[in-house]
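Batch queue: ligand-bound targets. Current item pairs a single chain with nicotinamide-adenine-dinucleotide. No template structures supplied; prediction is de novo from sequence plus SMILES. Inputs echoed for audit trail.
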Amino acid sequence: MANRMILNETSYHGSGAVQNVVVEAQRRGFKKALVVTDKDLVKFKVAEKVTALLEQANLDYVLFDEVKANPSVDIIKKGVETFKQAGADYLIAIGGGSPIDSAKAIGIIINNPEFADVLSLEGVAPTKNKCVPIIAVTTTAGTAAEVTINYVITDEAKKRKFVCVDVNDIPVVAVVDPDMMSSMPKGLTAATGMDALTHAIEGYITKAAWELTDALHLKAIEMISRSLRGAVENTPEGRAGMALGQYVAGMGFSNVGLGVVHSMAHPLSAYYDTPHGIANAVLLPYVMDFNKDFTGEKYREIARAMGVQGVDQMTPEAYCNAAVNAVKQLAKDVGIPEKLSAIGVQEADLPALSVDAFNDVCTGGNPRDCTAEEILDVYKIAF
Ligand SMILES: NC(=O)c1ccc[n+]([C@@H]2O[C@H](COP(=O)([O-])OP(=O)(O)OC[C@H]3O[C@@H](n4cnc5c(N)ncnc54)[C@H](O)[C@@H]3O)[C@@H](O)[C@H]2O)c1
Ligand SMILES: [Fe+2]
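Prediction returned. Tokens below.
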């Protein structure tokens, strides 16, 4: 079987990369942007780092700052209306996964109006046209939404998050500038960084993984585990390592899929509005333990990439434990709680959560096939 890779047309990395928003908008002849972001990013003057450049260059734009974390169907519909009223011809997304995912859904619906109900985009949507061009400026170091072909929307009426996978939605330009991330508070840096580590680990062991994505995911695991503690302390090296590490993970997992950590995390955000990264971070070591006998030698390489010494002398049991413990230690060092009970999950909800997790699009990629009952057992252990 042939393997497929889809990446941005152009991406910019490193301090000062944000200047290239103007370069790309001018080079591509874009006329008017809908800038998709959220109110906190306006308040903390993060969005302004981009809009000030647009103003200096006389590039016209309209601001849509109504995105909320875990964006809902209604927000997408509002964004579509605002895009039309503005007479915009491209999108600039400024934010973490929530604004970038919102921009993807808006851009897809503008050019594929038969999906205007949003809900019909769930899963692999058969859209025919590429979405409106997106320049994605990421402000968190986690989701890698700027380089993925996925987006996640919340159906508030049914209390569920759904994943949309669509090759037509990838931003044409990604801007990954660590200076856009320096204002993240410690907790957000830790949560989004653990999301990135989860992408790298789940992408590395997922069923569709192959040599090229293995190289990306192992490099990402190494960069993230080396950089996350520093990023939480806001060091320039830590921020730079996380900005690139999360992007490299995205280059991989977007093309091969994830696993049950994400399946189990999605319902937690839908039920309790749990930040996506926190949900992943708490669940990751428990799911790694559940999967360990279905991953060949890969946990040895995960342990090595995370800096564990002496892995070549270890038995399978020892290197599996070493990999899980390295993840637990990193999570602990950046302040992530160990149990679901500590992040507001209700024990009585666990059976319903397991059904939703089992039906999540990420479940098929898990290296170990599992039933809803087995997922329930993992939730119980993690509780
Ligand atoms: N598209 C994908 O492939 C993909 C992958 C994983 C997750 N997701 C989705 O992405 C969403 C989560 O995205 P996220 O974790 O990046 O967070 P987010 O976009 O939801 O933002 C969370 C909060 O952080 C604030 N924030 C963001 N950047 C900041 C900065 N630089 N300084 C100060 N505050 C800042 C925002 O204003 C917001 O209040 C979820 O809906 C998740 O399901 C998408
Ligand atoms: Fe994620």
